[in-house]
Amino acid sequence: MDLYPEQLQATSDFLRTSFLRLALVAIVFITPFAIYNFLVAQYLISIICWAILIAFTVNAGLIVWHNRYRIVLTQFGLVPIILLLLVVLLGQQETIGIFWCYPAAGSFHFMLPRRHAWLSTAVLFGVSIPLVSAFVPPNLAIRIVVTLALVSIAAAVFVRVITEQQHQLRVQAMTDPLTGLLNRTLLHETLDWAIEQSKRSELPMSLVAFDIDHFKSVNDTYGHDVGDDVLCRVSTLVKERVRRVDKVFRLGGEEFLILLHGTGKDAAQRVAEDLRERIALLELLPERSVTVSVGLATLQPNEDWTAWMKRSDNNLYRAKTGGRNRVEV
């Protein structure tokens, strides 16, 4: 099951954080370089350096004040300016200009998603190799290109390892360890996301709240190990029944919530009834069946997530007080 909207969050957080650090480094180290080149009448280099600083500052400002990292501003704004600076430096300063290629190659992987970073690196190689070959002996040029490639690969590997570790930690933090379902960590954010999706695309969204009837007596009669097995098998059935775009949460104990994406009232009711019937047919306990009570609520116009969820909880309460093993809409 997808973990959206967290499925790319680790990469996004890493890029935002690393970009802010790189922006700070750029201000500290490029500003004196820009001033120096202006003083020695290297006006073109100075102007390009100031353009780089402005590009860093604008995107850093968006991150700090709006928590938004505009990758497009980096890909089509900052990166081309950096490449232009490398071309000018290689053309005017030759060997000295080569040294600037190394931090540029590494920084791409800290500022851009993987595919964009490799694309920018490929352009860097395409620009720098002909210029380097023009004033450096072939054997030295090969060494420069190889070391430049190693710097880029090392940066890519480092970023990949860090983002994968962050993703694993996030999955652990937002996943119920017993059932493998989502826990409450992302409930608010996910429901808000669904409401925004519904507003933009006019897709219906429905919540299915359910809990296992008389679950306390299951634990009291058969023990908590059996109760845990019941929870796991019910969770497995639900995960197999819903689509990847749907989200299933274990809210605690025997309480569950399903977000049915793009699903209106009638279709959601069919899903809820099907789940209720399938669970009742499972042979989970000797000499007794396990049933669930279900409350359904389809998102209404201008409704926030708390009101939406409260309606599903109220309908679940009606199902329980109305005799259990039923669906209330």
From TrEMBL:
Residues 203-329 form the GGDEF domain. PANTHER family: DIGUANYLATE CYCLASE DGCM-RELATED, REGULATORY COMPONENTS OF SENSORY TRANSDUCTION SYSTEM. It comes from the Bacteria. The keyword Transmembrane helix applies. This is GGDEF domain-containing protein. CDD domains: GGDEF. The lineage of its organism: Bacteria, Bacillati, Cyanobacteriota, Cyanophyceae, Nodosilineales. The chain crosses the membrane at residues 20-40, 47-65, 71-90, 117-136, 142-162.
